[in-house]
Amino acid sequence: MLLKAFITTLWLSAAMGLGGLPGRAQAQPVIVAASDLKFALEEVAVLFEKEKKHKLRLVFGSSGNFYSQILQGAPFQMFLSADEDFVFRLADAGRTRDRGRLYALGRIGILVPHGSALKADGELKDLAAALKDGRLQKFAMANPDHAPYGARAREALQHAGLWRQLQPRLVFGENISQAAQFATSGAAQGGIIAQSLALAPSVGRLGTFALISDSWHQPLRQRMVLLKNAEPAAQAFYDFIGTPAAQAVMGRYGFVMPKE
């Protein structure tokens, strides 16, 4: 038990930059979320805190990593996953209150930074041509082993017949936000990222974005769930995400609001 407490304190200290102060980490409910939600959820949280007078701590990362941490006892209170399967697996393991709620459908596309030799083409025809003519050196995407947006990017590249050829030139981000950083910072000539990040002004101004058909990959069914130790503030935020105000913010970032 002491080992588990020490490990979870390290998780929170690293994620929140709290320098090993577990008391501060527990002062507000810790909400962990897929990194495609960074800009949208931060806006939603501002509205929530203003209306409900509750403070939250948002931590963004890959859904697969959060899933593993929750299984090992990390004291998070709410999980917004980019792949609903992680929520279902946590529910089956008895870590959640229920099987959660679908909160959004996500989309992927290709982002090409200004000045790149590539073109933003949703059918990836220019990417295929760049592989043949030598224009492409590095291409970014999230790690498909634990990031749902990376897994969908791999499916899209397989659909286009480019996955095997592209692998030696791939630069993997730990999550989709890091992949977007690689795609816009010069570390790569482009990449496949979440539409929700491309629609954020701070990212979108750095390049050109084109959607990839959602028929090229499995749907990004994004589900949220309260964990067993969720406090009233986490429950209130969970409910708030379904309100018209929160859904309007999500819609501006390209998320499709599902109806269950």
Summarize the structure.
The protein has 260 residues and is an alpha/beta fold.
The low-confidence parts are 1-26
Number of strands: 10
Helix content: 40-55%
CATH architecture field of the largest domain: 3-Layer(aba) Sandwich
CATH class of the largest domain: Alpha Beta
Task: Give the quaternary arrangement of the chains.
Answer: single chain
What class, by secondary structure content?
alpha/beta
Report the sheet with the most strands, covering strand number, pairing sense and barrel closure.
Answer: 5 strands, mixed
Integer average pLDDT: 90
Rg estimate, integer Å: 19 Å
Overview of this protein structure:
There is one protein chain. This protein is an alpha/beta fold. It has two domains: 2-105 and 221-252, 3-Layer(aba) Sandwich (D-Maltodextrin-Binding Protein, domain 2), CATH 3.40.190; 108-211, D-Maltodextrin-Binding Protein, domain 2 (3-Layer(aba) Sandwich). The protein is 43% helix and 19% strand. The protein contains 13 helices and ten strands. The protein has helices at 2-16, 22-25, 38-52, 63-71, 84-92, 125-133, 148-159, 163-166, 176-185, 195-198, 201-204, 232-240, 244-252; strands spanning 30-34, 57-61, 78-81, 101-106, 108-113, 139-142, 170-173, 191-194, 207-211, 220-226. Strands 2-1-3-10-4 form a five-stranded mixed sheet. It is globular, with a radius of gyration of 19 Å. The termini are far apart.
Fold topology:
Blueprint: H1 2-16, H2 22-25, E1 30-34, H3 38-52, E2 57-61, H4 63-71, E3 78-81, H5 84-92, E4 101-106, E5 108-113, H6 125-133, E6 139-142, H7 148-159, H8 163-166, E7 170-173, H9 176-185, E8 191-194, H10 195-198, H11 201-204, E9 207-211, E10 220-226, H12 232-240, H13 244-252
Parallel strand pairs: 1-2, 1-3, 6-7
Antiparallel strand pairs: 3-10, 4-10, 5-8, 5-9
